[in-house]
Amino acid sequence: MNWFLVKLVGSVIGMLALLTGCIQTPVTQTMAEAFGKGKSGNIDAIKLNPNLKYLRVTLRERAVLMVLGYSENSPKGTMETWYSSQGEVLKLLNGRVVSTNGFEIDWRNVNDVPFPNWTELNALNLSATSFEFKRTYDQMPAYQFGISETVQLYGVRTPTNANLVGLPANQLKWVEEKVKGTAHGLPSARYGLSTKNGQTFVVYGEQCFSSELCFSWQTWPVAK
After folding, report:
1. Which of 50 and 223 is assigned the larger pLDDT?
2. Phi, psi angles (nearest 5°) of residue 25
3. 118 or 21, which is more confident?
């Protein structure tokens, strides 16, 4: 499937969810394989397809599984598009949110400059210094375009209140980031990092789109 079709699928995922029963697309087929026939219940008891990649997402008191629909390389790293059985879409670039669809509030076209490189940041002493970057994004459904913020990223101690499941928090290295300016700043985002073969990557992340809407995600199942 070419890039145009990938974009088209992402923009009409709600329509595809309605048509799943009568039209099979690569996305709906993958979702059917990942979630069965849309059965609900304890997501941690779902029998996972070993040929697929999953993400465990917690939004308020609701925990859902998302399945990887597409993965592609970009100059900044790997872009992953994740789908839930309810039609939500989450795009991550190296473990950072770059777009959502189907949430109460959606962020689109997120652009971080300079883009945080986890492996390079891991080499810094973030407990003594911080990394600063500019973030721009569009927000829906408020139709706010070109929102611009200055964000500071820094190291923190192992948290005790993360939504991390199946993995001790002290096995990860933790960083936090906050928007400068408390008047319009969001609650801090947080990432749990791991390093393998010299490369650092996100295992767990938290992001807030407003003071009331925060969610977390982690790679699933937990790597043993």
Report:
1. 50
2. -110, 170
3. 118
d(CA 204, CA 56): 9
Per the structure block, which two tokens stand in for 129? Answer: 């210094």
Strand order in the sheet with 96-101: 96-101, 89-93, 77-84, 62-74, 54-59, 214-220, 199-208, 189-196, 173-179, 144-155, 130-140, 106-113
Residue 81 burial (CB < 10 Å; 0-12/13-18/19+)? buried
Beta-sheet pairing, 77-84 with 89-93: antiparallel
Angle of CA points 19, 30, 75, to nearest 5°: 110
CB atoms < 10 A from the CB of 150, how many?
Answer: 13
- For residues 134 and 42, the model is more confident at 134
Distance CA 88, CA 85 (A): 8
Helix, strand, coil abundance in the chain, percent, nearest 5: 15, 45, 40
Classify domain 3-40+53-220 by CATH number: 2.40.360.10
Structural contact between residues 121 and 200, judged by C-beta atoms closer than 8 angstroms = yes
Q: What is the pLDDT of residues 142-160, one digit of tens each?
A: 899 999 999 999 999 999 9
Closest by CA position to 17, among listed 3, 27, 4: 27
Question: Which pLDDT belongs to residue 172?
Answer: 96
Dihedral of CA atoms 211, 40, 53, 159 in degrees, nearest 10, equals: 40
Torsion of CA 201, 205, 210, 211, to 10 degrees: -130
pTM comes to: 0.81
Domain boundaries, the chain: 3-40+53-220
